[in-house]
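Colleagues,

For the teaching module next term, I've prepared a clean inverse folding example: a structure given as tokens, and then the sequence designed for it. I'd like students to try predicting residues themselves before seeing the answer, so please don't circulate the second half yet.
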């Protein structure tokens, strides 16, 4: 239906959702498309489906609630992962919001986001489809050319623009005033000016756990908002301490230059110390699991960090706090953490054992001696765990450099007498360099050769048989083959080291070797198939390889299991959880009376009954807009109706 003043979209009722936010899997048809995803998600809690939805979903929902709108999150990726029989078209067909929103935050969702958008447009041809996120912002002009995409909301802080957009859709007013919006006006693409960039996060919770609880109460579905597959058993919660970053890592789409390019952000916006502690209290009421503070809290400055720890000491926090840090912590920081909470841990992405490679990458540029002094201090002060991450695929990193990280892990074990609190992880930089990152914009300057540049190329790459074909880069020091070899050789060597130091037993070590042998063999078979000159024989060989991949589909890597914390019981003390739920229930009741009902009454008073149908538009002389005046053709490339 055209997005004109003659076609307002009324809010849907007291409890019905006005905006449905859909999180797609990375590859839409992963349940029947056999792909060797390999180690693409070994350094994050989610699976290769990347079922963890952006934290911004919850802040959008909370902000729109304050205006009287109802927002529902549906984590399609998690629902599809948990239930092989989950019927996506049937579920989507029962929804009837004012608009659907789909995230394309991480580029790994290029296939899933467009496929879900095509399916939604097929089922609801008159309902606007909005796409947002960092990758959507970068590729907004390419996205808006797709028939299933009506609107692209740009930027990293879209709470206020989304309020303006939903108001416009509900009132039928013009879209020219919605900041950061890319849209279609007839056959012309309109790019509205960017929105103002918030300088702080005082009123933004990331995530907003209160909204999550209210959403579950309103829509009676916990599964829709579960953040990742193993969360019910390993309920780790995360809090984002900032939007934007002072660092400018070569491959990161969230760094300083990418923030300036995509969101016109000159400096990070930080969550206040008071707000962070309040968020930690809410997270503690939901789960006994660790709470990770994402982004280095020290970027906000010493005064902010001191205030945070002062408040934390009197907050009565019992959960373990995990600090993500981008440079070695000093004694003062570690002492404050040890005094403030009973248990604290660190996550340090060293990336490489070589300082010159770290400097070229843009993070942990300190010397190894400085890093080791920080580790020694942390262990002395009682840190519960230190996760050390190494990456394969860095600028200038050779095969020898990549596998050499295991030798550095051995050095650390020897220096610290095999201290079990040191945990080691290695993973390839996969599957893509982030759009807008320095290396994506100037690959040659940073030692990369890009294989894919457009959104469509990345979307197609995600359907490849193995992660080697998905990679969008090679480096000046390693080919794709060498990156694959370095990855699996590092896995084998690290498993042997962990067995030697009794971190894992012989059976677990052999499982790692068996997994890497199988993966190498399948990748080699796919390479032979793709090189075969005869098309029919090539397809036969690929089918054989995919049959072998199917047998490994549900195989979990050892690294993914080692990332998990042991949690005794998934929920917090019943009185805490019950108290938080009761408060949110009362807040939801007040909101329905003071915000929702007035919104519904205004909508009825201003517009009268119903939507403007295409028949009514023709009768009234409206000219149909190309946005949704006819059911959008479903491109078979997306596979979303299968």
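(Answer key — instructors only)
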């Amino acid at each position: 239906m055209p997005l004109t003043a003659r076609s307002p979209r009324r809010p849907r009722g007291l409890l019905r959702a006005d905006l449905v936010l859909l999180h797609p899997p990375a590859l839409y048809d992963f349940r029947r498309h056999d792909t060797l995803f390999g180690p693409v998600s070994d350094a994050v809690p989610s699976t290769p489906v990347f079922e963890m939805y952006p934290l911004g979903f919850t802040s959008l929902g909370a902000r729109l609630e304050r205006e009287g709108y109802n927002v529902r999150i549906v984590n399609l990726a998690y629902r599809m992962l948990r239930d092989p029989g989950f019927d996506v078209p049937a579920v989507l067909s029962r929804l009837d919001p004012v608009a659907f929103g789909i995230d394309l935050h991480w580029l790994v969702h290029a296939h899933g986001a467009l496929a879900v958008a095509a399916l939604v447009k097929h089922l609801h041809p008159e309902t606007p489809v909005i796409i947002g996120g960092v990758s959507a912002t970068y590729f907004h002009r390419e996205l808006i050319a797709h028939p299933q995409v009506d609107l692209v909301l740009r930027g990293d802080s879209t709470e206020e623009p989304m309020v303006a957009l939903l108001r416009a859709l509900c009132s039928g007013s013009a879209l020219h005033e919605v900041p950061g919006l890319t849209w279609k006006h007839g056959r012309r693409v309109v790019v509205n000016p960017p929105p103002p960039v918030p300088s702080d996060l005082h009123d933004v919770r990331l995530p907003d756990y209160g909204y999550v609880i209210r959403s579950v109460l309103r829509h009676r579905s916990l599964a829709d908002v579960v953040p990742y597959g193993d969360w019910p058993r390993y309920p780790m919660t995360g809090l984002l301490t900032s939007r934007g970053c002072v660092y400018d890592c070569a491959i990161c789409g969230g760094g300083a230059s990418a923030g300036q390019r995509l969101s016109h952000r000159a400096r990070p916006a930080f969550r206040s110390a008071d707000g962070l502690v309040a968020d930690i209290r809410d997270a503690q009421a939901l789960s006994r699991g660790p709470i990770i503070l994402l982004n280095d809290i020290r970027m906000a400055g010493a005064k902010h960090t001191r205030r945070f720890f002062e408040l934390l000491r009197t907050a009565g926090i019992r959960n373990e706090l995990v600090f993500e840090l981008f440079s070695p912590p000093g004694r003062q920081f570690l002492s404050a953490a040890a005094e403030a909470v009973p248990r604290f841990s660190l996550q340090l992405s060293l990336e490489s054992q070589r300082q010159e490679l770290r400097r070229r990458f843009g993070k942990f540029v300190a010397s190894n001696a400085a890093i080791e002094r920080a580790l020694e201090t942390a262990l002395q002060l009682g840190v519960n765990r230190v996760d050390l991450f190494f990456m394969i695929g860095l600028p200038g990193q050779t095969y020898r450099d990549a596998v050499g990280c295991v030798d550095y892990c051995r050095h650390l074990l020897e220096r610290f007498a095999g201290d079990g609190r040191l945990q080691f992880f290695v993973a390839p930089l996969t599957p893509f360099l982030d759009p807008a990152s320095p290396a994506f914009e100037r690959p040659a300057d940073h030692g990369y050769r890009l294989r894919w540049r457009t959104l469509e190329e990345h979307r197609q790459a995600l359907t490849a048989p193995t992660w080697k074909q998905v990679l969008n880069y090679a480096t000046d020091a390693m080919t794709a083959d060498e990156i694959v070899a370095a990855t699996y050789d590092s896995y084998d060597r690290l498993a042997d080291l962990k067995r030697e130091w009794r971190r894992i037993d012989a059976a677990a070590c052999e499982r790692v070797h068996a997994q890497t042998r199988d993966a190498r063999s399948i990748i080699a078979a796919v390479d032979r198939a793709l090189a075969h000159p005869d098309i029919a024989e090539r397809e036969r060989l690929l089918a054989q390889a995919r049959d072998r991949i199917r047998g490994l589909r549900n195989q979990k890597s050892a690294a993914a299991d080692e990332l998990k914390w042991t949690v005794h019981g998934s929920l917090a003390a019943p009185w805490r959880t019950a108290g938080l739920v009761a408060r949110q229930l009362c807040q939801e009741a007040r909101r329905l009376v003071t915000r929702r009902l007035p919104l519904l009454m205004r909508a009825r008073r201003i517009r009268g009954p119903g939507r403007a149908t295409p028949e009514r538009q023709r009768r009234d002389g409206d000219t149909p807009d190309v946005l949704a005046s006819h059911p959008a053709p479903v491109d078979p490339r997306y596979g979303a109706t299968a």
